[in-house]
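Give me the fold.
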Amino acid sequence: MPKPQVQSLHVYPLKAVAGSAPGEAVVEPWGLAGDRRWLVVDTAGRQFTQRQRPRLALVHAEGLPGGGLRLTAPGMPPLAVEAPEPVATVPVEVFADVVEAVPAGPEAAAWWSTYLGVACRLVHMDAPDKRRPVDPRHAEPGDMVSFADGYPLLLTTSASLDALNSLIAQGDHADEGPLPMNRFRPNVVVEGTAPWAEDDWRRVRIGEVVFQVAKPSGRCMVTTVDQRTAARGKEPLRTLARHRRIDDRLVFGQNLIPRGTGSLRIGDPLEILD
């Protein structure tokens, strides 16, 4: 079997929308540089994700120098947004956490309100002291995360996706498969492993950076959204429920916490340390 290595890297500047697949990415303590630093919220400051608004899948966000953002979406003019000056913050709700973020200007709010058909605004996480703490049951004191669901990075493997797609092909919704990896919105995709090998990892080195493997990633209805059309289906949750239930969660992939900083590159080896 070939040795495990990085097959692809993925950065999502704006949570819940399409991002980019660079050849190299910088690892910061709270995730890949530029990953999930922006968020769309309603007027009460509650996050929007593809759980509530599957049409977010059709929006593409590109990071700009200085932390800005360029947005494109069907039926909308492209919009470039500069990172707002941190002169005032507003509280926003990300699951059970409330954190301070800086709102972008009215042009961005109008763009998003038109696209989603509901009053909303765009906010930015500007500084390390605005990050959210990681669940202390699976982390160390001081571990932080941005607007990602709960952990700094998500790792998946191509072999596990192949195995999952084989199971989907045997089920009642075989016509929905095979599913692409973008359903799972990973940061790091690794090739050259056995299926589900990542279940046994506790600490790994990818390129020059060591990571704690915190816990399996519990999956939700976002994985049922076709990222090309925003249509919902039944898979992969139906198949995960039959074959990949751990501690009453449907799981695919592993959450990572950096134990150092550095750069990741496509082709970097993955070494299992523990």
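Helices lie at 106-116, 158-169, 237-243.
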